[in-house]
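1st attempt posting a full record on here, be nice pls
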Amino acid sequence: MHVLIVETDPDLGGLWARHLDRAGARVSLAATQAAAIGLLRSEAIDVIVLDLMLGRGSAFAIADFASYRQPAARIIFVTNTTFFSDGSIFRHIPNACAFVQSRTPPDDLAALVEHYGATG
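the predicted structure (as tokens):
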């Protein structure tokens, strides 16, 4: 399974990547919209872990491009805000499969990735 993590905070992205790597996933990291789009153009991605409040670029632009370029890729949104806590993100992003807090334990995030990567 190939996982793309799109996270501006290198410490948080690295933490998630280490947990996913230990779980057997192939992980690519992107810190910006441009880097994420580049990877989506060149690599087959199964699951995207995407920070909703991306510091450099738009999470919605990445999700929209992924839905066009790689419609089977599942998106797990992570956030440290309450935006879309009503579940409306699932109406806006067709390949969104989960919405969790950034402080979700890395092992729990890895379990979500494994679940959605296996069913996607």
